[in-house]
Amino acid sequence: MRVLLLLVLAACVRPEVRPQPPLPSAVEAQCQAAELRRRPDPDVRALLDAPLAAARARSALAMGRIGDAQAIDRLAQLLLDAEVGETAAWALGRIDGGVPALLRCLAQPCASASAAARALAGPAAGKTPQAEALVAALSGPAVDEAAFALGILARNPEPKFPPRTWAALAAALPRAGAAYALSRLPKGSAEGLQQPLLAALRSADPWARALAARAWGRQGLPAEGLARAFDDPDWRVRVEAARGLATAPGAVALLLATAPRQASPHVLVALFEAAAQLGPEALPALSLTSPDPVVRCASAQARDRIRKQLIDTPLCDGQGDWRSRARTGALAAELGHLEPARAAMQDPDGRVRGAAAGAAGPSLSAELHRLLADPDRYVVEEAQGALAKDPSSQVVQSVPALVVPPEARAAPAARRLRLRTNRGELLVDLRPEVAPLTSSALAALARRHFYDGLTFHRVVPDFVVQGGDPRGDGDGGPAPGWALPDEHSPLRFLRGTLGIATSGPETGGSQFFLCHSPQPHLDGRYTAFGEVTKGQEVVDALLEGDSITEVRAMP
Question: Is residue 186 part of a domain?
Answer without folding.
Answer: no
